[in-house]
Amino acid sequence: MALIVIAEDEFLIAEVLTIMLEDAGHEVEAAPHGQAALSLVKEKRPDLVITDFMMPLMTGLELAQALRADEELSAIPIILVSGAQASIGRAHPDMFDDVLDKPYEEKRLLKAVEGALAGKCST
Amino acid sequence: MTQSLPRIISGIEGLDQILGGGFVEGASYIVQGQPGAGKTILANQVAFSNVREGRKVLYITLLAETHDRLFQVLGTLDFFDRSQLGVTISYVSVFQTLRDDGLSAVVELVRKEIARQGATLLVFDGLLNARDRADSPLDVKTFVAEIQSQAAFVGCSVLFLTSTRFADDSPEHTMVDGVIELHEEVPGVRSVRRLQVKKSRGSAALGGVHQFEITSSGLTAYPRLEAALRSPSVQDGPSSAAVASGVGGLDDLLGGGLPASSVTLVFGPSGAGKTAIGLSFLAKASKDEPALHFGFYETPARLRAKARALGVDIDSPIEAGDLEFIWEPMTENLLDKLGHQLLQAVRRRKVKRLFLDGLGGFQRAAVHQPRMTEYFSALTNELRALEVTTIATWELRDLFGPTLTAPGSELSSLIDNLVMLRHIETRSRYKKALSVLKVRDSAFDPAIYEVSFGNTGIRIDVPLPPVVNATTGMATPLAT
To answer: In angstroms, rounded to a whole number, what is the distance separating the alpha carbons of residues A6 and B396?
Structure first.
């Protein structure tokens, strides 16, 4: 079991994602925007961060940049899940361990989560 | 001296004219209507128009469809540019902030986000959810006021979208600068989309309801013609020149030809020769006198075949680019779309000869019949001012009959010249007859003439033998 922080502004998506990950045996903490997610990561030190791209106050890319710039947090794997901005994520392979397209496909997501937790990219 | 307010264009054809020049920069508007009315498409079209102008847009949602679902739908529309998502336009949800921390937290978040994005347009989708979270009307008023003042402070315009029709004296309405209502009505079995600017602070918006449609291009609005063209768009300069009708013998009856920049109504029953007259008129098209056939009945291919059968050469002007056909089947037309489409085609090619076949096609498209007089008045005034010589047709219902009804309600009074066609039964033969009833500012031949068709076109040069009751269609020889 791993602790995963989700950064997702869309409430319905955050709910579904949480259920999906909890059913897979993980513990989940969700934040409604990038800034809240950054605070949560600092507080909880999760094993993995799953982030959306477009969010209030801090985008998924900005969140990843903040984590990578922090020595204590830079090793936490990050998965970007985005509908329209996945290409922006793929342009930053140093920031994201994996990039997934929305809508969520459960098997694909869980495989990416296991891959990131094992320290390797599933793509 | 009055000062005009800076505007941002909507990017929606027709809407800027209805709004009196576009949205006022830094102002806030409510866009309201039932689900499916077109609010989201309107807002996104405005948003992407702003993006194309180099502006930044912030699109905030509360409890609504997911952004990905929204992008799927928008992906079917021409204006949507996926490459700008997260770059110049950001879609963010603040529902969790509203639910967990309330309206004040949302205001604070929106303020920070506008500044962070450098947005000059904010779309706030879900005002109703904010209202549900409020404890009192004062809370709603305060929320709307705070959002719009935060936005206005940095020159950001706001569109609040809501699926509820707020009352005109609702707290939301009293706070914003403008209210646009979208509505889909079902008169009979068809549906017609309409929009109304219910409030427009600081702008002389076009009042009343205006038709609009949604296609793959997004929204297109059609300002009500009689409101948009209350007066012609250009100065009317009456001319005493005459324009050749192209119909053998008719010019002599008219006193030398059709008065230039006039509107002639040719009315009569089916098969009496109205379209034949129109085709002959169009065959005179030239570089100096570009022509347009705007019709509802025959297709362009059938009209070309008909002209060939009549011995009227319209192929040459078509091939030379001097004659254009616009065919709008008489199915589900929008009255104001027809008017704007016609006038655009006239302006685009500087049309001087226009054949409208016929005015009944416009009337059938009208959802609200009592406005037809004002509509035709605006249309014909504009055509005259644009120096177009127009022949329009009006089909009489009865092939024969003892009574003859003037075409259209008050229509005759808007027309410069009246030409009547009839089928006449006399001596066991049917004849077609033409008579000129009215020519603007000119003497004309009041005699009734036979209409003859040959292989060189239609001719009107043989007076009808003396009969009585020709206008009723049931002529009897004049007793000698």
So the answer is: 72
Give, to the nearest 10 degrees, the angle between helix B103-117 and helix B137-153: 10
| Region A3-117: CATH code | 3.40.50.2300
For residues B273 and B296, what is the distance between their CA atoms, to the nearest angstrom?
16
Determine the residue among B73, B83, B96 to mutate to test chain A binding: the one whose Cβ has the most chain A Cβ atoms within 10 Å: B96
Q: What is the per-residue pLDDT across B371-398, written as a single tens digit (0 to 9) for each?
A: 999 999 999 999 999 999 999 999 887 6
Please, which residues bridge with residue B467 across strands? B477
A83/B contact by beta carbon, under 8 A: yes
Instruction: Share the mean pLDDT of chain B.
Output: 91
* Apex B475 CA angle, B469 and B477, nearest 5: 105
CB contact under 8 A, A12 and B94: no
**Whether B86 and A88 lie within 8 Å, measured CB to CB:** yes
Owning domain of residue B469: 242-477
- Helix (H) or strand (E) segment spanning residue B231: none
Torsion of CA A33, A36, A38, A39, to 10 degrees: 180
Query: Within 10 A of A52 (CB to CB), how many other CB atoms are there?
Result: 28
Do the beta carbons of residue B148 and residue B114 sit within 8 Å? no
Same domain? B218 vs B247: no
Q: For residues B87 and B209, state if they share a domain.
A: yes
The whole-angstrom separation of Cα A51 and Cα A43 is 17
CB B281 within 8 A of CB B355: yes
ipTM of predicted assembly, 2 dp: 0.91
**B213 and B163 housed in the same domain:** yes
A54-86 residues labelled b (16+ CB within 10 A) or e (exposed): bbbbbbbbbbbebbbeeeebeebbbbbbbbbbb
Q: What is the pLDDT of residues B237-273, one digit of tens each?
A: 888 899 999 999 999 999 999 999 999 999 999 889 9
Q: Which two tokens stand for residue B359?
A: 């005015």
CB contact under 8 A, B86 and A84: yes
How many CB atoms within 10 Å of residue B37? 21
Q: Are both B211 and B254 inside the same structural domain?
A: no
Indicate the SS3 state at residue A7.
strand
Identity at B117, one-letter amino acid code: Q
Token pair of B95 as six digits: 């529902």
Give me the residue from A10, A14, A57 closest to B109, CB to CB: A57
Q: How far is CA B239 from the centre of its chain?
A: 28
